[in-house]
Amino acid sequence: MTEAATMEFHPQPQAGPAKPWAFPAPDRTTLDNGLTVLRCHRPGQQVVAVEILLDSPLDAEPAGLDGVATIMARAFSEGTDKHSAEEFAAELERCGATLDSHADHPGVRLALEVPVSRLPKALGLLADALRAPAFADSEVERLVRNRLDEIPHETANPARRAAKELSKELFPAESRMSRPRQGTEETVAGIDSAAVRAFYEKHVRPATATAVVVGDLSGTDLDALLADSLGTWTGSSAEPRPVPPVTADDIGRVVVVDRPGAVQTQLLIGRIGPDRHDRVWPAQVLGTYCLGGTLTSRLDRVLREEKGYTYGVRAFGQVLRSAPDGSGAAMLAISGSVDTPNTGPALDDLWKVLRTLAAEGLTDAEHDAAVHNLVGVAPLKYETAAAVAGTLADQVEQRLPDDFQAQLYQQLAATGTVEATAAVVSAFPVDRLVTVLVGDASQIEEPVRALGIGEVTVVTG
Which of 19, 79, 122, 309 is most buried, with most CB under 10 Å away? Predict the structure, then answer.
């Protein structure tokens, strides 16, 4: 009889002690032209991320020209006084760089990513785009046509259509926030190169702009690079624009955007709440995450796992505009989609979740899981230079201190279950939510009306 073979197992490796981590703190300086610079050295990050924030908010757009900030943002990469649009794109490609831009309520942002070895060339291109954009008639006309082509596709998208309707419902008609960020067919059609240049000349200058640079900066004379590139950008001095207060009407009501034959209903439920300057923000973040921040949240547990109405429902808070004096605001919302026949039952159960939350509160297990997910995985979230740069740029845009994100994680870890419960219940009161449903009104109107969650209005899709 042969002897049975034996195997020797090596001991299973064990995790070592966790290393202390904090969101990185930037160094803040100002160039001679007035440009504010935040730099953050991240060893090993060989792809450098640069974010430029321009104080050109959407509410600065001239009447009847909604969308001109978006066209301007896109036109920055469409040629300069040195390069045509094609040449500029080719030069970026030779650097291995990408340049993206967008306009939102707080202003315009440009995001550059480039290998650190090509940073001098890429910063020069970025400086040219800001210093002397071409805004050629042909390129602006093409961007306008492209934007006009995008609008019907956005209207056909249920989620985008719901967001558009919620903004229209929440904000007064005279508020820029009530209208699409990138303009409508009527306003975009009226934009030309002269309008883009006029907006640029009035609102784009280094004295009110900020540059954020993140990456492995060892061996790089960043001061010299900035002086030779962004430092050559000139413009008049000016004070930052005042932040107008955000007002909204969140009286509980339902708007059904009719899409005959739709097999699903897109739902978006929202209201306006405090921004990141409010002391309740950490507890609100934690409570909202427990409500609908992940697959294991309470909304998913009921609507997806128990009832099978949906593939997922999310609750979130998104800052719209921020100000230290309390005039800013965040959108607090719940979004998802459900099958058409179960629209009424799904909304009924969603409201039951909110009422139960108010009556019984969050559990310690929900709280602990949320803290672990939000705080414990933060080092992974900020592994790239772009992620760090984006967050630092958010802080600047929202007029927050440079150590805000680091403090936020400490506050999240110290927030208790009772505080998180109070914050999320205050964020989502059952009688102060505007509900937008994009779906087949003939099937969902009456079941929703029977729920009694607010007056129901039907509009065309």
Answer: 122
